[in-house]
Structures are given as structure tokens and as C-alpha cells.
């Protein structure tokens, strides 16, 4: 591991100022992703800003009838919160499908959203990877691509986003709240947080350098049946090949976001209009423009079948 300096921030302003004062700083929260990447020298920050001392560990009601989740709320606490379980069951289920109990005890809301891809070539520093080293090429293209994207990929990168929680947040229309190094704040709809790879796969979000996530807000609950179904190679401790997060209302209308298929949580509002007509109709719209590789065309059928299972479960 490369050497680095470390400081513990005790206010958002101090964290932002520390970020502004160093060209290669990273915030560290649970550290469950960042430390692994540092040990492999995939991430080589010169300065770590530990944000664990900030008062971002609460879940509070908003004036609009929703909830504000502090950036440091641990995945375990979020999944277990009574209000989340009752009104945003999709989020609780998505969280509990991820990682392991120990990891969820450390992992934070912000860190989970910003975790990096699990493309095996990204982790293998002997292989070219445009995300790790811009301009070096993409070893996945032409390689083994069973886990990779079928939607929104580019000639530069075909990686997927690994977060289960982000799929639920997308279906729930969450908003990410931030503070920038100059002290200004902003609210980013979750749909606009993660980017498609294009020619710059190393730029994964629309956050600017040193921008700190302070909280994630959920709008007022929308009711309905909440389902998160994750298809993976093992029953636990594995990332999704395909996942479907859905909210289904009594009349068959609802929302659907899909994971394991793209560089960001995949949601197509026009596809949701097809929900009363069934999984095939939804999948046709949702997968419009898909570009599977020779190894992962099975994901197209898997999305449709997982959707069918979800819609059938919602009907009871
Ligand atoms: C073995 C294993 C299995 C896993 N399985 C799953 C799984 O099945 N599903 C799943 O979804 N996830 C899984 N994960 C990933 C895990 O959920 C993430 O590692 C975790 O959520 C990251 O949160 P963290 O707080 O530890 O982030 P950190 O590692 O601390 O940080 C991650 C990134 O977020 C940035 N960051 C952190 N906080 C902030 C902030 N407030 N503002 C701005 N930037 C910030 C950091 O700088 C860093 O770039 C797995 C991880 C492991 C190691
Ligand atoms: S798919 Fe993306 S992350 Fe994987 S090797 Fe190619 S550029 Fe790197």
C-alpha cells in the first residue's frame, strides 16, 4: 500500500476544507471498499479524510413526509429501521441481500452508493482497464464477460454497478444531498448521480472533486407491494447477475429498477407503463437497445423471468 496522510474531520466544513486542500484526497467511511482498493493499489489517495466523526448517523422525518438518511447510517441500521421496513420495504430487502452481516455493520449509506465496480479486470492490475488507468484499454471486451453490462455500455467499458441498495433508491426516487468544498450544498436526484461509462469510465458519478454526501432523502411513501429479487451464483455473499426492485400497486401499475445490467441502476419509466400488461411487455421496453456480449446474452431472458417472478409474487 502506498503511504498516505490521515485526518479525522469533526464537521462537514472541516471535511470539505480538507478535500479542497489536497488534490488526491478521499473520504473514508466504513472503508469496506476503499481499503480493499488501496491494498491493491487501485486507489492511491495521498490523503484520507475520515468522516466517521460527523453527525450523519440519523434517520429523521422530512417536512414532506419522507425520511432523511444520514450519509453515515450503517446498512444494518437502515435495513432494520422500523419506518424503512414498514414504508420502504424494497430498500430494507435490497440491503439485506447485500454482502454479509459483518460488512453491513460497517458499510454506510454514502459509501454503498459510491462503491466501485466488481469487474474482475478492474481488480487485476496486470490487465488494461480504462476505468483504473484511463486510455489503457478494456480487458473485458473480448474477455470473460458473464457478469458484465448489457445496457448503456460503451467501447471503453462494459462494467456494471454493484450496489443493491442503489437499485432500491432509484425505484424510490431518492435524492442525494451534498456539500462542496466551497461550502455550497446541492440536492441530486439519484437518477442523475451515477453516469454511463462513455469514453470516460473512470468518472463514475456527477459529484465534483471533494464533494461530500451528507444524506439521502426518500420522498413520502407510495404504498404498494415492495419486492427485491436478486439472482446470483450463490445464495449469499455474491453480487447480482440480475436484480429487480419493484413497487407494485393493486391495479398492477408501479415502478421497476434493474441491477446487474448496466453501469448505473437501470430504470426506464416508459417500461413501467407496461406493467399491467406483464413481464414480457415491460422487458421489451426496458431492454430496448441492449448490447449483450457472447457470454451474457442470458441476462436478457433472466431479466424477463425475474420480472415475471416479481409481478407474480406481487399478485400473491
Ligand atoms: C466481500 C464483499 C461482498 C460484498 N457484497 C455486496 C453485495 O452483495 N451487494 C452490495 O450492494 N454491496 C456489496 N459489497 C459492497 C459493500 O456494500 C460496500 O463495500 C459498502 O457499502 C461501502 O460502504 P463503506 O461505507 O464501507 O464505503 P468506503 O469503502 O468507506 O467508501 C467507498 C467510496 O465512497 C466514498 N465515500 C464514502 N463516504 C462518502 C461521503 N459521505 N461522501 C462522499 N464520498 C464518500 C469513499 O471515498 C470511497 O470512494 C460487498 C463488499 C465486500 C467486501
Ligand atoms: S469493463 Fe470497465 S472496469 Fe472492466 S476492464 Fe473494461 S474498462 Fe475496466
What attributes characterize this protein structure?
about 325 residues, alpha+beta, 5-stranded antiparallel β-sheet, 3-stranded parallel β-sheet, globular, binds flavin-adenine dinucleotide, binds iron/sulfur cluster
Describe the overall structure:
The mean pLDDT is 96. The chain is 28% helix and 18% strand. The chain has helices at residues 12-20, 34-39, 75-80, 82-87, 89-96, 101-106, 109-114, 120-123, 164-171, 269-272, 279-286, 298-315; strands at 5-8, 25-28, 47-50, 59-61, 67-70, 175-179, 185-189, 212-218, 225-231, 242-248, 254-259. Helix 11 crosses helix 12 (298-315). It has 316 residues and is an alpha+beta fold. Strand 6 and strand 7 form a beta hairpin. It has a five-stranded antiparallel beta sheet, covered by helices on one side. Strands 1-3-2 form a three-stranded parallel beta sheet, with helices on one face. Strands 9-10-11 form a three-stranded antiparallel beta sheet, with helices on both faces. Iron/sulfur cluster (SF4) binds at residues 117, 119, 121-122, 129-131, 138-140, 157-159, 201. Flavin-adenine dinucleotide is lined by residues 26-34, 51, 71, 98-99, 103, 106-108, 110-112, 114-115, 162-165, 212-213, 239.
Amino acid at each position: 500500500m502506498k503511504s498516505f496522510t490521515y485526518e479525522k474531520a469533526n464537521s462537514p466544513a472541516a471535511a470539505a476544507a480538507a478535500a479542497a486542500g489536497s488534490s488526491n484526497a478521499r473520504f473514508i467511511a466504513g472503508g469496506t471498499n476503499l481499503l480493499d482498493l488501496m491494498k491493491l493499489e487501485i486507489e492511491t489517495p495521498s490523503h484520507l479524510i475520515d468522516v466517521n466523526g460527523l453527525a450523519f448517523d440519523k434517520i429523521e422525518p422530512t417536512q414532506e413526509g419522507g425520511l432523511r438518511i444520514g450519509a453515515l447510517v450503517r446498512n444494518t441500521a437502515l435495513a432494520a429501521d422500523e419506518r424503512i421496513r414498514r414504508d420502504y420495504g424494497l430498500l430494507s430487502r435490497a440491503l439485506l441481500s447485500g454482502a454479509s452481516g459483518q460488512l453491513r455493520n460497517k458499510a454506510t449509506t454514502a459509501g454503498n452508493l459510491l462503491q466501485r465496480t466488481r469487474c474482475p479486470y478492474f481488480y487485476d492490475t496486470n490487465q488494461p482497464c480504462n476505468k483504473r488507468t484511463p486510455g489503457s484499454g478494456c480487458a473485458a471486451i473480448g474477455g470473460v464477460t458473464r457478469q458484465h453490462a448489457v445496457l448503456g455500455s460503451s467501447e471503453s467499458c462494459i462494467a456494471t454497478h454493484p450496489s443493491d441498495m442503489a437499485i432500491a433508491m432509484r425505484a424510490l426516487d431518492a435524492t442525494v444531498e451534498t456539500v462542496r468544498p466551497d461550502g455550497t450544498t446541492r440536492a441530486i436526484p439519484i437518477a442523475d448521480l451515477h453516469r454511463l461509462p462513455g469514453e470516460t469510465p473512470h468518472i463514475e458519478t456527477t459529484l465534483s472533486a471533494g464533494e461530500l454526501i451528507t444524506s439521502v432523502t426518500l420522498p413520502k411513501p407510495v404504498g404498494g407491494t415492495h419486492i427485491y429479487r436478486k439472482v446470483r451464483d450463490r445464495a449469499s455473499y455474491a453480487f447480482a447477475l440480475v436484480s429487480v426492485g419493484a413497487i407494485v400497486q393493486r391495479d398492477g401499475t408501479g415502478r421497476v429498477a434493474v441491477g446487474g445490467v448496466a453501469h448505473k441502476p437501470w430504470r426506464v419509466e416508459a417500461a413501467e407503463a407496461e406493467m399491467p400488461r406483464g413481464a414480457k411487455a415491460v422487458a421489451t421496453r426496458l431492454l430496448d437497445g441492449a448490447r449483450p456480449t457472447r457470454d451474457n446474452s442470458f441476462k436478457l431472458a433472466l431479466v424477463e423471468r425475474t420480472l415475471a417472478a416479481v409481478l407474480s409474487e406481487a399478485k400473491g
